[in-house]
Amino acid sequence: MRRFGLNPNFFYNLEKIFFLVACKNRLLTDTNLSKQNKNSMKKLFSLLLFVGLVFTLQAQENTLLWKVSGNGLSAPSYVFGTMHVLCDGTIAENPELVAAWEASERLVIELNPADPKLLQEMQQLSVNPGFANIYMDLPEADRQLLDSFFTENFGAGLAQMGVLKPFVLSSMLVTTYLPCEEMFTLEPHFVELAKAREIEVVSLETVASQMGIFDEIPQDFQVEELVKTLRDDKGQEEFANMLALYMSGDVLGLYAQMIESELLQQYQDLVLDNRNLAWIPDLEKLFSQGSSFVAVGAGHLPGELGVLQLLRDRGYTVEAITL
């Protein structure tokens, strides 16, 4: 039996991994619609969103790396879309990506995994208030399902694991989808490179602000997503598809899949939009101080309120770099 353990990078990636879990679970959920109508409306809605996305990106190349210049900048900066759980670092070896990295004077990421306080803060914020256990509110069938899964894969059942917040449990679940023993995470990789070059590492967010996102999302919703993912026997296949989209540089395809998720349908402002808007003033300040290499989740790049369009709206030239 394959048994999974948790390393520090798991806690660093909690918010990002849960986002992948929720994006895998699709909707529509209106119980007044027949199954056929739900499928038809879903396809139409997804098509309209995807068409809008393509126009928003101004038919530019479909890529993960973008050059930001103009608007008075003395040197260009670069924006790279990451996926937070990979099996290897092949993409980090791409010559165009390496060139952009080497041309930059600082690294800008969502959170700095090298911060000595980060792991402790994340662990503290991963536990339900008062160590309340979610099994208290679960139907018996769901309780047994979760208990069996965590016992088999992590060596501890719901009696122990249930004190963790639901999004943490969902993040643990998705690590079992990886077709490899160890996770590769891009942000810690770039932090190590930054240390070697002795360049500055800047965080766009704090642990409290990032983890606090899920305190604003009802626990019932998070538990429902967790159970839904476990009951979906296509979970591993769909997750593999997301990985394939990312590794091929298909940010449009990845985003199109993301915006179909119930998470984004209900909470896109919390998970993406508000954060993107908050980052722009900080990015502008950093760009004005010299070339920066920005590495944030790929889901933050596209869309009308995505980082790329927001930078265009501020007068910058944003150009695709094909990887």
Task: Give me the secondary-structure topology.
Elements: H1 8-12, H2 14-24, H3 35-56, E1 65-69, E2 77-82, H4 95-102, E3 106-109, H5 118-125, H6 140-154, H7 158-161, H8 166-175, H9 186-197, E4 200-203, H10 207-212, H11 219-231, H12 235-247, H13 251-258, H14 262-288, E5 292-297, H15 307-313, E6 317-321
Parallel strand pairs: 2-5, 3-4, 3-5
Antiparallel strand pairs: 1-2, 1-6
What would your notes on this structure say?
The protein is of the alpha/beta class. The chain has one domain (8-27, 36-126, 165-305). It has 15 helices and 6 strands. A 6-stranded mixed sheet has the order 4-3-5-2-1-6, with helices on both faces. A hairpin with a 7-residue loop joins strand 1 and strand 2 (77-82). Helix 2 packs across helix 8 (166-175) and helix 8 (166-175) packs parallel to helix 11 (219-231). The longest helix has 27 residues, at 262-288. The chain is elongated and about 60 Å long. The chain starts with 7 loop residues before the first helix and ends with a strand.
